[in-house]
Design a protein that fits this description.
alpha+beta; OB fold (Dihydrolipoamide Acetyltransferase, E2P); 2 domains
Length: 182
């Protein structure tokens, strides 16, 4: 007797969209699951080398910095992020350009080149405003590794929160690919 998944594939054209959806769900359940890093790795920075913390976007996202832009007073950052305030960090991400009237280099660092995996813009607490002074970025939209002093907490301009996480860059390096972005 053929397996259930084979029967579903054979009859999917007759079942319509509902059958196709069911087939996709069953297929994803039967597909081999990745065995890479454990789920717990998003709960801590990647590594500490001398005095530089190798930070990861998974760590930032798992800190659950809930930010409501309509709130009159932004909430304080979670303790997991507050401990990083003023520390030397290094983080890999994608550089998205910002206009700076001063001529200084400023960009947003995000985990995905197009904002997030579905193309929607990332939430304010999931991106880092990088102020790089005279340092230059090799190519916007490309993977980079940024090192500098990390700042945590709301920055307010003209009554609006403009950033929650910032990095005063001391070094920017282009990466060959996006393998190091976590």
């Amino acid at each position: 007797m053929p397996r259930l998944s084979e029967q579903l594939r054979a009859h999917a054209p007759y079942v319509g969209l509902g059958g196709l959806l069911l087939l996709m769900i069953i297929g994803s359940l039967l597909a081999p699951q990745p065995t890479g890093r454990s789920a717990a790795t998003g709960d801590r920075p990647l590594a500490v080398e001398s005095d530089v913390i190798r930070l990861r976007f998974d760590y930032i996202k798992n800190a659950n910095y809930d930010f409501d832009p309509r709130a009159a007073e932004p909430p304080p950052p979670p303790a997991a992020l507050q401990t990083l305030d003023g520390k030397q960090v290094e983080i890999a991400g994608f550089a998205l350009p910002l206009y700076s009237p001063t001529g200084q280099t400023e960009f947003l660092l995000t985990q995905a080149a197009n904002g997030c995996c579905f193309g929607a813009p990332p939430m304010l607490q999931h991106m880092i405003l990088v102020r790089a002074g005279q340092l230059k970025v090799g190519g916007y939209g490309e993977p980079v590794l940024v090192r500098g002093v990390f700042s945590v907490g709301p920055e307010i301009e003209d009554g609006y929160v403009t950033s929650l996480l910032r990095l005063q860059a001391t070094d920017i390096r282009s990466l060959a690919d996006d393998r190091d972005i976590e």
